[in-house]
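thought: user wants a sequence for this fold. calling inverse folding tool.
action: design(structure=
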């Protein structure tokens, strides 16, 4: 069975009160994440400071002994507020995350500056654990609960 990543933070920060204000204040904020069998999918909201911008997600499965970084893709059908843009990302993890803790932070580069969202210094952390298959009981006769009716 595929691994299950359990967020150790609210998985939809974008749904919390004051999210738009936090984006304005910090320039970049994680909007949501969703664990999938092959990895982690999510979205980031950034303040639209310039036309050219780059958003990426840096992550590790071994407490930063090594890390990888993936670019996030601009989502043209983004927020209609005119002040922010949305970027989507996918971290390809597969079975590697089954027993590990995934940590990540979001980087936003724009107009010669760099901004980070690292969950207020704690990084975004998800605990990996293997899904437990359903318990196998004794085989049951499919007809054991059937009624037999003779006319």
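)
observation: tool returned 151 residues.
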């Amino acid at each position: 069975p595929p691994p299950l990543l359990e967020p150790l933070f609210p998985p939809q920060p974008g749904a919390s009160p004051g999210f738009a204000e936090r984006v304005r204040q910090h320039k970049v904020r994680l909007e949501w994440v969703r664990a999938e069998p092959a990895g982690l999918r999510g979205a980031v909201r950034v303040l639209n400071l310039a036309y050219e911008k780059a958003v990426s997600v840096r992550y590790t499965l071994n407490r930063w002994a090594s890390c990888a970084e993936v670019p996030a893709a601009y989502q043209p059908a983004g927020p209609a507020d005119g002040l922010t843009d949305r970027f989507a990302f996918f971290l390809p993890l597969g079975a590697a995350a089954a027993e590990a803790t995934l940590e990540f932070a979001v980087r936003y580069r724009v107009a010669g500056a760099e901004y980070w969202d690292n969950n207020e210094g704690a990084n975004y952390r998800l605990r990996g654990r293997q899904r437990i298959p359903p318990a196998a009981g004794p085989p049951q006769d499919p007809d054991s609960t059937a009624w037999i009716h003779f006319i």
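thought: summarizing for user.
answer: Here is the designed sequence. Strands lie at 3-7, 28-36, 39-47, 53-60, 68-71, 73-74, 84-92, 101-110, 113-117, 124-130.
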